[in-house]
Structures are given as structure tokens and as C-alpha cells.
Amino acid sequence: MEFRDVVRRRRMVRNYTDEAVDSAIIDRIVNAGVKAPSAGFSQGQRFIVVTDEYVRRAVARAGGEKEYVADGFDPWISKAPVHIVICVDKGAYLQRYSEPDKTGVDGKPSQESDWIVPFWWVDAGASMMAILYAAVDEGVAAGFLGAQAFDELHEVLGIPSDISVVGICTIGHAAEDRKSGSLKRGWNPSDDVVMWERWS
Ligand SMILES: Cc1cc2nc3c(=O)[nH]c(=O)nc-3n(C[C@H](O)[C@H](O)[C@H](O)COP(=O)(O)O)c2cc1C
Q: What pLDDT, in 10s, does the model give residues 78-89?
């Protein structure tokens, strides 16, 4: 598929058929996330691939699927045959940016408060985007659930407390779904968001 068609076709899909996703396809999709850029090549992104049905149900519970269903959505998290839970290890960045080629002007070890834009969140977003595009390229569909209240997920998946969960990419074969109400907002006109040569 042409890249421009991948970009055009990508949308968050919130319902999936029962058809499994081939493991070679899953590998390629996750690998797209792994190959995403990372600041200073810190490589702090981490990925947990969940296919086990029992665990997917637990992930769905932790992700608030009940509320989605109560709002009229399909049980899209538990129905998705694959979850890719995107996590970041902030410590990898603090360590990398304390190395001799990255210590900045004062030479002190990097600490979280130094970061105006914490690159670990940027890198997680880059991986998310790569995964979403790779899914479309592989002929399957994907959605994303941001980690707003995933307190139980650390326990469900045995994630260490110093690792942050950024969100869950759901992957599967698309079924007819209910679109997000947010889409009613429509696209901002491109001359409102794209400026040439200077802010205007
Ligand atoms: C950081 C981030 C968090 C998101 N969290 C959720 C979420 O928790 N639940 C959900 O249904 N969609 C979530 N979305 C999907 C957005 O609602 C969706 O991308 C937006 O409405 C545009 O729709 P589209 O991606 O299908 O074009 C999230 C998207 C992003 C980028």
C-alpha cells in the first residue's frame, strides 16, 4: 500500500471481528513501534503484546470497557484479538541524558524537572503512530486507548512501578463500529493549523 493511502485510511477502529491476527503480522506491527525514533537513542519505549483472552478481558476491565459499553460502544477492548500496551521507562532517558555527550551545560545528572518537553512521552507517541500506520499497512485495523485511569494495569500485567503505561493499541480485523462523538468537531481548516514561513 502506498504510504499516502495508509495515512488517508487510518482511523481509530473500536470494534473487531473474532478473526485472529497472524503472529507474523503482529511481529511486524510491534517492530514498527520498536523502530520508532527515540531521543538520544534512549530506546525507553516498552511494549507488552497481549493475545490471551483471559488477560485481554482483565486489560479491558482496567481500561474501563464497562463505561464504553454503557455509552453504546462495542466491547472493543476485550474483542480486539491483540493488545499492544505501550509503556515508557523514564529512567532510560534520565540515565542517557546524564551520559558525557548529553549532560548539557552544567554537567549535572539529568533529572525530570530539567525537561520542558519530556522526551519519553514524545517517543511513546512516535511508537503509537508507527504501530497505527503499520496496522493499516498490514490490512488490519487499530484503535488507541489513552492511559487516564489504568491503575490496575500494572498489577494485571506485572509492570514495575517505575514504568509508565501510555496507552493500549487494540489490533484486529475491523468490524462495523460506532464512531467517536469527538469526530463531530470536524477537522480544523488547514490554514488555521498550518502556517508557512512564520506564525500567522
Ligand atoms: C493520546 C490519545 C489518546 C486517546 N485516547 C482515547 C481513548 O481513551 N478512548 C478512545 O476511544 N479514543 C481515544 N483516542 C482516539 C481519538 O479520540 C481519535 O484519534 C480522534 O477522535 C480522531 O479520530 P481518528 O483517529 O479516528 O481520526 C485517543 C487518541 C490519542 C492520540
A: 999 999 999 999
Instruction: From 144, 164, 168, give the residue whose CB has the most ligand 1 atoms within 8 Å, as the site to mutate.
Output: 144
Nearest ligand 1 atom, CA 68: 11
CA of 22 to the centre of ligand 1 (A): 25
- Does domain 3-193 fall into CATH 3.40.109.10? yes
- Measured CA to CA, the distance from residue 90 to residue 42 in angstroms comes to 10
For residue 37, is pLDDT > 80?
yes
| pTM, to two decimals | 0.96
Tell me how far apart the alpha carbons of residues 89 and 46 are, in angstroms, rounded to a whole number: 7
Print the SS3 string covering 130-173. HHHHHHHHCCCEEEEEECCCCCCHHHHHCCCCCCEEEEEEEEEC
Looking at residue 66, its amino acid is K
Cα separation of 40 and 102, whole Å? Answer: 8
Q: Which residues pair with 164 in a beta bridge?
A: 88
In tens, the pLDDT along 134-176 reads 999 999 999 999 987 788 999 999 999 999 999 999 999 999 9
